[in-house]
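Known limitations

Structure tokens in this collection are predictions and should be treated as such. Users comparing against experimental data should check residue numbering before alignment. To illustrate the layout, the record for Glyoxal reductase is reproduced below. The input appears on top and the generated tokens appear beneath it.
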Amino acid sequence: MEYVEFYNGNRMPIVGLGTFRVENDEQAKEAVQVAIENGYRSIDTAMIYGNEEKVGEGIKAGLESTGLKRSDLFITSKLWLEDYGRENVAEAYQTSLNKLDLDYLDLYLMHWPGMDEDVMIETWKGMEDLLKDNKVKNIGVSNFKSHHFEALLSHASIKPVIDQVEFHPYLIQEDLRTYLNAQRIQMESWSPLMNAQILDDEVVKSIAEEVGKSPAQVIIRWNIQHDVVVIPKSVTPSRIKENLEVFDFELSDSQMTQLDNLNEDKRVGPDPDNYSGHHK
Ligand SMILES: NC(=O)c1ccc[n+]([C@@H]2O[C@H](COP(=O)([O-])OP(=O)(O)OC[C@H]3O[C@@H](n4cnc5c(N)ncnc54)[C@H](OP(=O)(O)O)[C@@H]3O)[C@@H](O)[C@H]2O)c1
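Generated tokens:
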């Protein structure tokens, strides 16, 4: 496994398992367990996914069958918009911990910026409180654009370590990546496979043939070579394995450029500027 290092010196695995749209049932538990058994060290969930209990059971089962320690893993969950407000953060965090049956998270994210800048800033102060109280290892955000950071950073005493945003070859987020690099805020991609849609792209398929890998592996590798943390979701054991077999090949500069050139600024998820949380 390869790791990225945050500006605060802490590390995070560059590939992890996503769990959005995974029901809170045995499938969630098994996917997480299979992932840990096959070398994953990072799991991404969120309160709003409704699956923290079964994800937690999968973590426990994975630790038992591998003999790993909790500290070998990197677990992320996210604060939902309904729990925004400085005074609500600690309780929401504790609720997620209880569901996951964990003592701490490695990373807690504000899930979206929301539509109210003051609430966003106050909520971040609640996130800072958690870190100052040593309840969480790292705090970050999700779906923030550079203008959200501009508003936040003038009031923040602790900078987010990471921004988890939609990122794939149809949405290459060049300006945001430049901004985050300059700020030393790590970028993390969600829906890296464009919810499987990108796997049918002809350019992606032809590069996959050239390198003798699957389209999904090509896209995950493209994320890694852009220094972006990537969390492909799968509940299929063979795919969970496949998605981690991405450290034994490299894309050439020309293959990277061909993928970058697919950009259409096309989203599969909501635009953060007008998302108030009415659907996930
Ligand atoms: N912060 C946010 O607002 C936000 C928003 C969306 C997602 N996320 C996070 O990002 C994670 C990933 O995004 P996502 O779940 O939207 O979509 P994704 O990872 O882009 O795509 C998942 C889909 O691709 C399929 N798949 C996975 N590996 C494959 C492979 N090797 N070959 C063929 N098909 C494959 C999966 O099928 P099977 O599962 O059936 O195998 C599933 O249908 C989420 O799970 C979540 O943790 C965060």
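For this record: The chain is about 40% helix and 15% strand. The pocket of NAP is lined by residues 18-20, 44, 111, 142-143, 164, 190-196, 199, 214, 216, 231-236, 239, 242-243, 269 (CB under 6 Å). Please report discrepancies through the issue tracker.
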